[in-house]
């Protein structure tokens, strides 16, 4: 579809903030050449009637553990990153952070090296790297291997700072139990997106780490100290601190829709809630199970669990998350689309390219069905 002239009309255009009706957009050889009210955009080349569907920027997913039947840590290589990115592109994701779950120092180094190589090659979709561990709390480990969780050493910190210098974005999820405030400050000053998660730390401790430089929270409500009547925990810190944004797994399994609605209303700006898939190996495939460090993960009824029922990532794509947010949580579609595009892209410190932008390319865009049941990548 990127060759020749193509004009889209008859749908709604999302500009990163608003849904716009009655407008058309035209591309030549993939590059946007015209945009405006229907009457002002000639119907040249192939004319695509969107039939009420939405034309907007591709999704941005900052937590992708795997896809196409493979986990990132199974074989940290450029080819693995290519497979994962391709699987998620079929689900509408044009920018992602491949995510390494707590692993050995050797696998972590190999993953960093592979991601640097992928960035140098210009591998489509790879926007950086997310290291979720190993410096977490055993008490809130979730599906992470407790035997691999450990404190951050000065050598660990040095390796992270070096990685940050070679990557467009390095996100690191840490717990105060195993990382010092000084280490957080050093990472933040180096441009690392420090995210609090998998922690039992109390409210005041979490606020202290946010003041030290943490700007993000990993999968709100899950694997963290909860919002209580006398102790607000990390949930309370995430919602009350305007300097942080927080990811959310909106599958109506990890978090109840009513809890999502309350959190959305309570979140202090300018920080915002954004959507993540927390996708595992099954994403973009029909696999019903896979292994995570010799442990079998079962795919049943829209959930991924260990044998004991512990949630192990999510069986989720962002189009489904958007539908949950609109239909079950009751939020406006415009705001939810922003949570899957604009907000996470801002954390990457890059502009989200939409059909209204003169430098937008078809490869930046997706078509979302008006009933939110599927998505088409246009590039």
Could you provide a short overview of the structure?
The protein is α/β, with parallel strands linked by helices. The chain has helices spanning 78-89, 105-121, 154-166, 181-189, 203-212, 233-240, 257-266, 318-329, 333-340, 342-347, and strands at residues 5-9, 12-14, 19-21, 23-28, 31-37, 46-49, 54-57, 59-64, 66-67, 70-71, 93-101, 129-132, 170-174, 193-196, 216-217, 245-248, 273-275, 289-292, 295-300, 303-305, 365-368, 375-377.
The number of helical segments is: 10
Q: What CATH architecture of the largest domain do you see?
A: Alpha-Beta Barrel
Number of DSSP strands? 22
Measured by DSSP, the beta-strand proportion falls in: 15-25%
Tally of structural domains:
2
Query: Strand arrangement, largest sheet?
Result: 8-11-12-13-14-15-16-17
Q: Note poorly predicted spans.
A: none
- Mean pLDDT across the residues is 95
In the CATH scheme, what's the topology name of the largest domain?
Answer: TIM Barrel
The Rg value, from CA coordinates, equals 20 Å
User: Which CATH C-level class of the largest domain is it?
Assistant: Alpha Beta
Instruction: Give the assembly state of these chains.
Output: single chain
Q: What's the CATH H-level homologous superfamily of the largest domain? A: Metal-dependent hydrolases
Residues in helices, as a percent range = 25-40%
Termini, distance in Å? 7 Å
Give the CA-based shape.
globular
Helix/strand/pairing category? alpha/beta
């Amino acid at each position: 579809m990127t060759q020749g002239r193509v004009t889209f009309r008859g749908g709604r255009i999302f500009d990163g903030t608003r849904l716009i009706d009655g407008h058309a957009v035209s591309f030549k050889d993939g590059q946007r050449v015209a945009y405006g009210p229907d009457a002002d955009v000639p119907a040249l080349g192939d004319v695509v009637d969107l039939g009420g569907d939405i034309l907007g920027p591709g999704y941005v997913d900052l937590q992708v553990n795997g896809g196409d039947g493979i986990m990132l840590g199974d074989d940290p290589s450029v080819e693995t990153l290519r497979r994962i990115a391709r699987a998620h592109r079929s689900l509408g994701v044009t920018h992602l952070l491949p995510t390494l779950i707590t692993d050995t120092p050797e696998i972590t180094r190999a993953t960093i090296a592979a991601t640097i190589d992928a960035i140098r090659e210009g591998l489509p979709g790879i926007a950086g790297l997310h290291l979720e561990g190993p410096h977490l709390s055993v008490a809130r480990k979730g599906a992470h291997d407790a035997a691999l969780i450990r404190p951050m050493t000065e050598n660990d910190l040095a390796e992270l700072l070096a990685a940050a210098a070679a990557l467009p974005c390095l996100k690191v999820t840490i717990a105060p139990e195993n990382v010092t405030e000084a280490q957080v400050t050093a990472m933040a000053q180096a441009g690392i997106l420090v995210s609090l998660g998998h922690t039992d730390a109390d409210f005041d401790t979490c606020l202290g780490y946010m003041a030290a430089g943490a700007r993000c929270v990993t999968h709100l409500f899950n694997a963290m100290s909860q919002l209580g009547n006398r102790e607000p925990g990390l949930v309370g810190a995430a919602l009350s601190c305007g300097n942080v944004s927080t990811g959310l797994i909106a599958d109506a399994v990890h978090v109840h829709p009513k809890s999502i609605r309350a959190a959305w209303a309570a979140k202090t700006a300018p920080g915002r809630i954004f959507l993540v898939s927390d996708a595992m190996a099954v994403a973009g495939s029909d696999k019903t199970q896979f292994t995570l460090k010799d442990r079998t993960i079962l795919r049943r009824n829209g959930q991924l669990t260990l044998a004991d029922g512990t949630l192990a990532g999510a069986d989720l794509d962002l189009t489904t998350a958007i539908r949950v947010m609109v239909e079950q949580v009751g939020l406006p579609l415009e705001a939810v689309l922003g949570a899957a595009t604009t907000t996470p892209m801002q954390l990457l410190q890059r502009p989200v390219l939409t059909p209204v932008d003169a430098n937008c390319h078809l490869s930046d865009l997706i078509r979302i069905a008006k009933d939110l049941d599927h998505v088409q990548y246009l590039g």
